[in-house]
């Protein structure tokens, strides 16, 4: 179910923020504009999200990180290396040991026999680190989509402010004509004409400033996908349509599945893998060697073999295990801290959005209609000499301020909505 609050400046379809589904956009084929044959190109939020996910440099590092971890996994899965050794004794001595008469040589092959499932534990650790990179990419992508949405809303805001500035200029020009007629008829002072002309010039400056701001916001949006020149003239969407939000408790429940929280679960799995790897050090490895020994003094050869194992492995591994457990327990408390912060941010956005929508309803349904009526009545009264130019100017400015307040409240509501969707990683509407 949707509630729509239409304003006189609303002219496009509502903006629907669906960040969680947009995470899959990067795999899609490049999109083109709906009607490339027209001179004006309108960019939709979905297209902006897709281009950012495909081209933003910060997302291009994750495949490289995965490649690095794949290489580490291959290394972790290697068995201990074989070592070839050679040893020479009783050479270049004196007396009976002079020359090579008593020479002894030994050639050996040795390696380590890993015990305690160490190799699999190393592989498991790298796999869990790979999972962290995957979740980290989701977090970064969600953050980027939030940036896209906010900049997209800024462009929508500027579009509406440009339209309002055009309305303000038109009202100022209409007022100037009324004042000019009254001054020409000698029923109004010439000072009113000068003020009306100044008002038109101020409205022109306001329009120019809003147009410059619009260009700035267009550029900021295009920069997100690496473009230095926007390939669109405007964006499609409306500031004045809002989804009906779910209850706060339901939103907070969804927020606990946010990739930012999922990151703690992934990190906890890495810490668990580190604990298991540390515990494998309690089991000592065996070092073995085999070889051949040659004794030139008696002209004989013999097979030699050896095996060794370090002592006190459990005691030496205990400190490493304790450090890994401490790091694992730290993740739990950091997760609880982030959940508290998330609850605060979500409630602030939820209540702020509700207040913004209430302001929009009051302005559109009560305040602006009354100001429209007052402006018309004041204009007629001014023509009949019942009101002064100051009265007409005041009512006109009050109407423009009210319309501007609607634009800003709608912008705030949509930004709060985008923040909620970023925190929950899901669309806000119940029906989605």
Secondary structure layout plus pairing:
Elements: E1 2-4, H1 19-22, E2 42-43, H2 45-55, H3 57-76, E3 83-89, E4 104-113, H4 118-184, H5 190-223, E5 234-235, E6 241-243, H6 248-255, H7 259-280, E7 286-295, E8 300-308, H8 313-383, H9 389-424
Parallel strand pairs: 2-5
Antiparallel strand pairs: 1-6, 3-4, 4-7, 7-8
Radius of gyration: 37 Å
Oligomeric state, counting identical vs distinct chains: single chain
Tell me the number of strands. Answer: 8
Mean of residue pLDDT?
Answer: 84
Give me the number of helical elements: 9
Structural class: alpha+beta
User: What percent of residues adopt helix (DSSP H or I)?
Assistant: 55-70%
Order of helices and strands: EHEHHEEHHEEHHEEHH
Per DSSP, what share of the residues sits in E-state strands of 2 or more residues? Answer: 5-15%
Tell the overall outline.
Answer: elongated
| Order of strands across the main sheet | 3-4-7-8
The largest sheet, given as strand count, sense and whether it forms a barrel, is:
4 strands, antiparallel
Terminal-residue CA separation: 9 Å
The stretches of 5 or more residues where confidence is low (pLDDT under 50) are 1-39
């Amino acid at each position: 179910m949707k509630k729509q609050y239409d304003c006189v400046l609303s002219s496009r379809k509502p903006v629907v923020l669906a960040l969680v589904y947009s995470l899959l956009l990067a795999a899609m084929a490049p999109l083109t504009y709906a009607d490339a044959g027209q001179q004006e190109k309108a960019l939709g939020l979905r297209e902006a999200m897709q281009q950012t996910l495909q081209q933003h440099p910060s997302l291009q590092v994750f495949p490289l990180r995965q490649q690095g971890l794949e290489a580490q996994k291959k290394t972790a899965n290697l068995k201990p290396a074989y070592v070839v050794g050679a040893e020479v004794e009783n050479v270049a001595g004196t007396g009976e040991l002079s020359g090579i008469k008593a020479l002894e040589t030994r050639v050996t092959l040795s390696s380590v026999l890993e015990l305690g499932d160490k190799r699999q534990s190393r592989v498991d650790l790298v796999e869990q680190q790979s999972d962290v990179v995957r979740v980290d990419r989701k977090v970064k992508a969600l953050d980027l989509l939030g940036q896209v949405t906010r900049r997209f809303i800024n462009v929508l805001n500027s579009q509406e402010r440009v339209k309002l500035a055009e309305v303000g200029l038109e009202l100022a020009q209409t007022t100037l004509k009324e004042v000019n007629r009254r001054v020409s008829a000698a029923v109004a002072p010439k000072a009113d004409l000068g003020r009306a002309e100044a008002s038109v010039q101020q409205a022109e400056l306001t329009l120019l400033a809003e147009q410059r701001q619009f260009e700035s916001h267009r550029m900021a949006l295009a920069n997100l996908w690496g473009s230095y020149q926007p390939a669109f003239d405007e964006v499609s969407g409306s500031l004045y349509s809002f989804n009906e939000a779910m209850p706060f408790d339901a939103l907070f429940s969804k927020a606990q599945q946010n990739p930012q929280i999922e990151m703690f679960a992934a990190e906890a799995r890495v810490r668990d893998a580190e604990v298991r790897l540390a515990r494998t050090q309690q089991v000592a490895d065996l070092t073995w060697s085999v070889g051949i020994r040659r004794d030139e003094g008696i002209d004989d050869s013999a097979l030699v073999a050896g095996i060794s194992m370090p002592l006190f492995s459990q005691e030496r591994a205990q400190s490493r295990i304790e450090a890994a457990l401490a790091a694992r327990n730290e993740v739990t408390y950091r997760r609880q801290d982030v959940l508290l912060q998330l609850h605060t941010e979500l409630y602030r956005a939820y209540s702020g959005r509700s207040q913004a929508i209430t302001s929009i309803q009051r302005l559109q349904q009560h305040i602006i209609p009354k100001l429209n009526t007052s402006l018309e009545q004041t204009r007629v009264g001014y023509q009949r000499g019942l009101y002064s130019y100051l009265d007409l100017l005041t009512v006109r400015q009050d109407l423009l301020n009210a319309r501007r307040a609607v634009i800003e409240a709608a912008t705030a509501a949509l930004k709060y909505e985008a923040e909620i969707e970023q925190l929950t990683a899901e669309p806000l509407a119940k029906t989605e």
